[in-house]
Amino acid sequence: KRFHEMKQTVKYGSSLSFPSEATSVDSWLDAIGLEKYKAAFQGFEVQDLRTLTNSRLRELIPADGPRKRWQLARKELGFNLPESSTEPKLKFNSTSSLYINSTISVPCIDEIIFCVSIVIHDRVDEGEQQALVSGRDVANIFPMFDVKQKPLFHQVDTSSEAGIFQTIKSIYAIAKFSPECLVISLLYIERLRSITGILLLTSNWQPILLAAMVVAQKVWDDSSLLNVDFTMICSAYTLKDINSLEKRFLELLEFNVSITASLYASYYFELRTLCEKSERPFTLKPLGDEERRRLEQRSLAFKDELHQQRRWRSGPADVVSR
Predict the structure, then answer these.
(1) Is the pLDDT at 307 greater than 50, yes or no?
(2) Is the pLDDT of residue 135 over 50?
(3) What is the C-alpha to C-alpha distance for residues 164 and 83, in angstroms, rounded to an integer?
(4) d(CA 270, CA 260)
(5) What backbone torsions phi and psi does residue 22 show, to the nearest 5 degrees?
(6) pLDDT tens-place string over residues 23-47
């Protein structure tokens, strides 16, 4: 019932919604957060956006993240990039993985996001109550996680399940990482709470969730996103912001990103049970034998890599910014 009510009130991905019409290219670029590219589009009329080719767009917006944002926003105007037999429909290069086709069979992601949203919302409720009783000022203890400094998305109700669902859905709509990353992200958030005692609050769960997602998809996905890709998803954050956020998150985790198969399974079955109690299907499959070995090996290898970078280069910057 709760999930049904959320579907009635939330337009999924609306925190990344773009205008459906434009009176000028300059005002449109302002509205989609790409005002710094006004000079590149000087002299363009709105109708010129319709015939702009992929190759020309790459010249105007060389950076992969902002270019993908431009493309998503342009679709809302009802324009589609013209097909060209001479231009590749998929982009793959060494600076971004947003354009790689996924070969993973994706289950119903809404149900998984729904379950994760409920858990995070419960943790936020718990944290707000504890903060009220203790009078702790978490923003001063962990200022890098204070959403008031840099809100992940505007116009999102950070205190509701619907707002949490909306945020995760908006990130996933562009990032398209494997659904297992949501389980791993939740695991890392719980580990952070256990190690540091940090309270999840309306003012900090968004950047904490973002940091957990950045790390989780690097641990699990073969073709993980780069930190620069997340600056397109969350336009308020610069690459320096993402790097700093992830570095601090890893430091607070004491660089312990390793995950046993049994630990993952415990989180997986908790989420599945929660979904089933809400009378929703949970189509994400448990890990097979090979996937369990892969998770343990990859997470342990990433942990060792972080410690090695920390030992020889006095910090994980070379790893976390990849």
Answers:
(1) yes
(2) yes
(3) 37
(4) 16
(5) -145, 140
(6) 999 999 988 878 888 999 988 888 8
- Taking the C-alpha atoms of residue 133 and residue 135, their distance in angstroms, rounded to an integer, is 6
* pLDDT top residue among 216 and 34: 216
**Long-range pairs, 107-112, Cβ under 8 A, ≥24:** 107/179, 107/283, 107/284, 107/285, 108/281, 108/283, 109/169, 109/172, 109/179, 110/12, 110/169, 111/275, 111/280, 111/281, 111/282, 111/283, 112/179, 112/182, 112/183, 112/271, 112/275, 112/282, 112/284
Kindly report the backbone phi and psi dihedral angles of residue 93, in degrees, each rounded to the nearest multiple of 5, phi listed first: -150, -175
Contact between 160 and 118 under an 8 Å Cβ cutoff? The reply is no
Under a CB-based contact definition with an 8 Å cutoff, are residues 284 and 180 in contact? yes
Decide: 304 and 149 in contact? Cβ < 8 Å: no
- Quick one: tokens of 106? 């994706």
Q: Which residues pair with 235 in a beta bridge?
A: none
- Answer yes or no: are the C-beta atoms of 230 and 242 closer than 8 Å: yes
| DSSP designation for 144 | G
How far apart are the C-alpha atoms of 288 and 281, rounded to whole Å? Answer: 20
Place of tokens 């790097």: 243
Residue type (1 letter), 214: V
The DSSP secondary-structure symbol of 93 reads B
| Euclidean distance between CA atoms 199 and 205, whole angstroms | 9
